[in-house]
Design brief:
The protein is α/β, with parallel strands linked by helices and 235 residues long. Helix content is 27%, strand content 26%. A hairpin with a 2-residue loop joins β4 and β5. The structure holds adenosine-5'-diphosphate (2 copies). Keywords: ATP-binding, Nucleotide-binding, Transport.
């Protein structure tokens, strides 16, 4: 099954076309990257995947986890790390624990809101990303790398099958970026989470990912995987 299947996707903002018949598929279990120049339409594509932009019959089709987007209602299966994810917590005094817990679907009848089982899931995912010792800390007091790990925990707390990340490490230093990629890779390899990640960081691609898709002129093409040691130019 394909976790993501995009066919003939088009999108314009007013008269400005951004996507122009894009096709792409990400089989379940794969780690796929999406690259492309600034303004190529990567964030637009991600917003369409998440149902945040309108999709009519004329825009082509999107399938998520084998279901048409219009009929898709298993959003707990999709984890999302947005670009500039910290922006929503600016001037908002939320603790690490609260942020992760707020994203947990409450399964009526299974968990009582704020109950023990919920807390366990929150602590479990925080320890998986190495942030359990900081659970009571305000997120604004953490380093950039630590904040990213909290946003990753927030995305993973429902144990999603698909993880979508939009330039998750912009503004994070090299060491923390590598650490962050290792974490994502672990969730991909050990838990079978399908990953679709927008990135500018070309150096990480050949080592981390199974597939690289490039968005250019409104269409997507698969980029032949580069071998290590070859020249990595800027994107
Ligand atoms: P990327 O994520 O690849 O940098 P975006 O999807 O953000 O690209 O943007 C694609 C194009 O659409 C850009 O030219 C951008 O200026 C334009 N754009 C993005 N959002 C809007 C919007 N809300 N209204 C109008 N144009 C937009
Ligand atoms: P599923 O993920 O089982 O296909 P949906 O996401 O459509 O189902 O959700 C159905 C109901 O079950 C929703 O009310 C949602 O709150 C709950 N739910 C589904 N998955 C989870 C999960 N991993 N954690 C908590 N609640 C969930």
């Amino acid at each position: 099954m394909n976790a993501i299947e995009i066919k003939g996707l088009t999108f314009s903002y007013g008269n400005t076309p951004v996507l122009n018949g894009a096709d792409c598929c990400v089989p379940e279990g794969r780690f796929a990257a999406l690259i492309g120049a600034n303004g190529a339409g990567k964030s637009t594509l991600i917003k369409m995947l998440l149902g945040e932009l309108p999709l009519t019959g004329e825009n082509g089709t999107i399938g998520l986890m084998g279901r048409e987007l219009k009929l898709f209602d298993s959003w707990s299966q999709v984890g999302y790390v947005p670009q500039n994810g910290m922006a929503s917590y600016k001037d908002f005094p939320a603790s690490v624990e609260e942020i992760v817990q707020a994203n947990l679907y409450s399964r009526i009848g299974l968990f009582r809101f704020g109950g023990k089982k919920e807390k366990e899931l929150v602590h479990q995912v925080l320890s998986q990303v190495g942030m359990e010792p900081f659970q009571k800390r305000l997120i604004g007091k953490l380093s950039g790398g630590q904040q990213q790990r909290v946003l990753l925990a927030r995305a993973l707390v429902n144990q999603p099958k698909l993880l979508i990340l939009d330039e998750p490490t912009s503004g994070v230093d090299k060491e923390n970026t590598e650490e962050f990629y290792r974490l994502i890779k672990k969730f991909n390899r050990e838990d079978g989470v399908t990953v679709f990640m927008v990135t500018h960081d070309r150096n990480c691609l050949s080592e981390l990912t199974d597939d690289v898709w490039q968005l250019q002129d409104g269409v997507m093409k698969r980029v032949i995987e580069e071998r290590k040691g070859e020249n990595h130019g800027d994107i």
